[in-house]
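Need tokens for this chain, all 219 residues.
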Amino acid sequence: MKKIQAVLFDLDGTLIDSEYFYFKNWAPILKQEFDLTINYEDWIRDFAGHTLAHNVKRLTEDYGYNVTEEHMWKRTRAAYADSNMSDIELMPGAREILAFLKAEQVRIGLVTSSYKSTVDTVLGKHGLLDYFEFFVTRESVECPKPNPEPYLLASAKLGLSADCCVAVEDTFTGSTAALSAGMKLIAVTKQEVERARLTAVDNIVENLSEAKGVLSQWI
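Here are the structure tokens for all 219 residues:
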């Protein structure tokens, strides 16, 4: 195996504990707009870890609702603003794994389907922005995860071949993007529905402390 020179982190559900935040904002909208009631398990199974476009497509094609991406963008962004996204906490071990990699002089990037405003708000609140050499966000690419474009762009920004990089992801969607780009992968999730989907992943751990242990062996 080539020497690992960079680690690329997903954001939502990987570094920040945001999935319940998104659920508690989407659930009332789905109820008000479509009389669709979902619980957190439904959210994790059907919507979490996907782009807005994917979730709108699911609502239109799988559920049969007449709704546009622009409409849901406005509704969800207004809800996020009212809910104060800066309240989102870090996942356990997030600060520690970033500090470890920095001390080891491993390059660090962020590859997310969230927008730069979310990155600035949440990571800025926790004082973590300076750990990252760059941010690949939704605005950066034409085709978001599960397309490999975000990770290929990250590789190009680093000037490294993909096999010198490790992606840290929490969903099948993100993992598919990283593996398709030719990167080594650590999947970090306790969600059984996600673990069941990650059959192509060799390294699945439950938390970032365990991910740090795997990385320490590779670098």
